Amino acid sequence: MSQHEHDEHEHHDDDHEHEHGPLVELVTVRDWLRYAVTRFNRAGIFCGHGVQDSFDEAVWLILGTLALPLDRLEPFLDACIPGEERIALLEAIEQRADERLPTAYILGEAWLGDFRFSVDERVIVPRSFFAELLEDGLAPWVEDPDAVGSVLDLCTGSGCLAVLMAHAFPNAGVVAADLSEDALEVARINVADYGLEDRIELVRSDVFSALGGRRFDLILSNPPYVTAEAMDELPPEYLHEPRMALASGDDGLDVVRKLIAEGAAHLNPDGVLAVEVGHNRHIVEAAFPDLPFNWLSTRGGDDMVFVLRREDLPGA
Questions:
Q1: 114-136 pLDDT, tens per residue?
Q2: Cα gap 144→270, rounded to integer Å
Q3: pLDDT computed for residue 151 by the predictor
Q4: Where are the alpha helices (DSSP H) in the chain?
Q5: What is the pTM of this model?
Q6: In a 3-state reduction of DSSP, which class is residue 307?
Q7: 265: DSSP letter
Q8: Distance (Å, rounded) from C-alpha 263 to C-alpha 314?
Q9: Is the sign of the CA dihedral 280, 281, 287, 293 positive or negative?
Q10: N or C end of the chain: which has fewer CB within 10 A?
């Protein structure tokens, strides 16, 4: 063996020593799950994208990486993982722990209830209280889901809520608008995945700017609403998301103000505006003390979504 070959051989040995303890010693799904939870806890990951804690995050990442069903952990716990798949697992766990990359971006998918969506760093990771509210067609604010003819999803991002609206309101035409052309490209993928190209129209628009005089029975929006102060304190996971999908001026209400000011002009008589604002109820009510906001309750939290009828909006 030449000196060069010897050095190369030594180098590869070093590589294996460096990172491959887990690749040799961790054999089953159970082993990898324990390892991932420990890595996540030591790294102090933040679980803000649809799961409660580092255990749930580890289950999602491991089952997703192995292309196993996300709701069937038990049968696979003692399954042995071959070497090739262990490499992919280790890379995924390190991305999540070291780079603080959200699991949804690592896997390229996110879930709202039973609905799967393709996602990448062009869109924020889908998460919305509307997913639950749309399960029963936004009752009682919408009396008959079958009678709804037109709906608008403003700030659609990945198109997730537009897809849910198409299912909740089976006879409605859906317009899904976003300012980001990148986001609309991802939305196109998701609309096509659900075969909804004929029912969901994607529009590039800065809030209502490109919608002319169009009117809808329901306008729904999960807009950017993070305040400047809260943006400065976001965990690293959120910094991988498009800033324009989160930040909305000093008080987080830049988009909400436009929705309220211009909403009536884009709603049919008896139409409804529903907007998600996270923990900002107090800011919203202080900014619009005269509006009769209706704040909704969900399993995930109360007072995160408000509803206003058209007749209660300015200019109605």
A1: 899 999 999 989 888 999 999 99
A2: 13
A3: 98
A4: 3-19, 21-25, 29-43, 54-65, 83-98, 103-107, 130-133, 160-168, 181-193, 228-232, 254-262, 281-287
A5: 0.87
A6: strand
A7: G
A8: 8
A9: positive
A10: N
How is domain 113-312 classified at the architecture level of CATH?
A: 3-Layer(aba) Sandwich (3.40)
Residue 233 and residue 210: Cα distance in Å, rounded? 33
Own/partner pairs, 63-66, CB within 8 angstroms, 24+ separation: 64/103, 64/106, 64/107, 64/109, 65/89, 65/92, 65/106, 65/107, 66/29
The answer, yes or no, to whether residue 14 has pLDDT greater than 50, is: no
Q: What is the bridge-based pairing of β-strands 216-221 and 267-276? A: parallel
Both structure tokens of 108: 């390229």
Q: Domain coordinates of the chain in residue numbers?
A: 3-107, 113-312
Question: How many percent of the chain have pLDDT more than 70?
Answer: 90
* Residue 140: cis peptide before it, omega within 30 degrees of 0: yes
pLDDT, residue 15, reads 45
pLDDT of res. 51: 85
pLDDT for res 164: 98
